[in-house]
């Protein structure tokens, strides 16, 4: 695979022979005026604009940055994991036209492709010695008071890393909320210093068959019952909100964050994309371009920036 390509003018994108020479990404300079047309569809890898975010082409590209340093970061990350970067942008382009349930199925299949791919295998080989956190299985505190259901991630010593027991408990609790119309309010929070640092890393790679892993996600992903009760769901987020923890919270009708909250999607460095519903939940909240930025940059988003984007609805505390 060749290096990322930098195009002096947007019009050069139409002449790029990307089908004959795969590349990890293309950077389009948006200060040279708009071309008459762009390729339809876009090349099967990230197409990044450098220039003003209100440029006429901005909405057609995968993301737009206004600083050369940000562009360099994204290009570098795409070059390190080009398969995951390409699958991400193709998925985000596709699910814009799908309903949420169909989009979740598409996300799971895309995630499965990468689970069986060389980039994730390389990551697993380099992290084979990750031990399970010595905290015991995850717990979910469930409290019902009249018509309110309160759920609290209760694995504070592991910063509420979501292992299988905790994932399954979340699925069951959200199924209860989805099936019981008398529950008019659901609140999700986390114990300890963080809302959640995402999936338990020691469990990555335990299911090596992508087809079986896809089938498991279709049965067990909390996102499925969340879709049926999200209009009643409030997520209260503090501290770190990473990976699958963020993906789940972003489905909520209301996300309330403390000033110290921060948000991150680190999956690209693992040769993956968000696979707990985040490609759907975040793109519905903040759009395709900002979702792509969070994944392809891997950067943290502080609470105030998240509020400006619409990733959170209110800051309290």
UniProtKB/TrEMBL annotation:
Query: Is Isomerase given among the entry's keywords?
Result: yes
Indicate yes or no for the key word Iron. no
What is the name of the protein in this document?
Enoyl-CoA hydratase/isomerase family protein
Q: Which GO terms describe its molecular function?
A: isomerase activity
Organism annotation: Novosphingobium aerophilum
One matching Pfam family: ECH_1
Q: Which SUPFAM superfamilies does the entry mention?
A: ClpP/crotonase (SSF52096)
Domain of life where this protein originates: Bacteria
Which UniProt key words apply to this protein? Isomerase
- Protein family: Belongs to the enoyl-CoA hydratase/isomerase family.
